[in-house]
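Dear H.,

Thanks for agreeing to be a second pair of eyes. The structure we're designing against is below in token form, covering all 234 positions.
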């Protein structure tokens, strides 16, 4: 009987930000402290490309060229991911949504949450200048084994080009190179305003200065997630 009165809160954190703004870095940290899994559209696409799945085959060219993959396939992949058991208490979104149609699709996912549950949505936008973003993308190195992300300028590994955790050789992401990284940043600038407006009007949105240290940015994120989220009864 007691169980009938318990309210279950499904917590969703949406982290918006340009390529190189630190979404992946910050979402991983946040996941450790909140125990919520990170749902990263970019990671899902890259692992499907590596595994040569049907989704990977569809996405490979767009990802290599720094263009958005079609809404239909990305939405389907996100829906399949958030339906998994580990997302039942909520999740942290990295890189999704990126278009209005993806944002609207996400709203439709809320409808599948049971009436006994409440939804708490926190939306954060990491803000940085283009020059800093491009420098970060150029310096990014990734461990192919555990996906830990480093930066040769701002966040280097202890041993040159080797992962601190498993000593794998670090790799450069294919889409972090010259013209492709510039396109990703400028495309983001063109489309982000409408996504921010969408969330500002629904749940409120907090802009966070992403050019500070990883620790300071994380502290701001934590403050928003614990204090500033909107709880909505469905
Ligand atoms: P995705 O993987 O989402 O890439 P992105 O949004 O372009 O963002 P990045 O992963 O490049 O940067 P980040 O913000 O995660 O920064 P990070 O923490 O690594 O998408 C890739 C592609 O997939 C897209 O181009 C598209 O083709 C496709 N795609 C994905 N989602 C899609 C969607 N929803 N719809 C359609 N297509 C989609 O940090 C960057 C660097 O900076 C690192 O080296 C890091 O160590 C360093 N760093 C981080 N924080 C700090 C700090 N505070 N100080 C100093 N250095 C820092
Ligand atoms: Mg990322």
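And this is the sequence the design step returned. I haven't edited it by hand at all.
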């Amino acid at each position: 009987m007691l169980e009938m009165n318990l309210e279950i809160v499904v917590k969703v954190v949406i982290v918006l930000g340009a390529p190189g703004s630190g979404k992946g870095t910050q979402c991983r940290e946040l996941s450790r402290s909140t125990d919520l899994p990170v749902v990263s559209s970019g990671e899902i696409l890259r692992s499907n490309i590596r595994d040569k799945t049907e989704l990977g085959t569809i996405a490979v060219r767009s990802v290599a060229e720094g263009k958005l993959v079609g809404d239909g396939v990305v939405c389907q992949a996100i829906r399949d991911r958030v339906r998994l058991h580990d997302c039942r208490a909520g999740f942290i979104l990295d890189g999704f949504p990126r278009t209005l149609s993806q944002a609207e699709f996400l709203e439709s996912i809320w409808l599948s949450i049971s009436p006994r549950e409440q939804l708490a949505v926190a939306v954060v936008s990491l803000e940085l200048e283009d020059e800093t973003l491009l420098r970060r993308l150029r310096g990014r190195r990734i461990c192919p084994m555990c996906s830990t992300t480093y930066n040769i300028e701002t966040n280097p590994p202890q041993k040159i080009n080797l992962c601190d955790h498993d000593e794998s050789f670090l790799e450069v992401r294919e889409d972090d190179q010259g013209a492709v990284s510039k396109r990703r940043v400028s495309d983001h600038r063109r489309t982000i305003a409408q996504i921010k407006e969408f969330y500002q009007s629904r749940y409120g949105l907090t802009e966070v200065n992403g050019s500070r240290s990883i620790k300071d940015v994380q502290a701001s994120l934590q403050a928003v997630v614990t204090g500033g989220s909107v709880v909505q009864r469905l």
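Two observations from my side: Strands lie at 8-17, 38-40, 90-94, 117-127, 140-142, 149-151, 206-209, 230-233. The two ends are 22 Å apart (CA to CA).

Warmly,
E.
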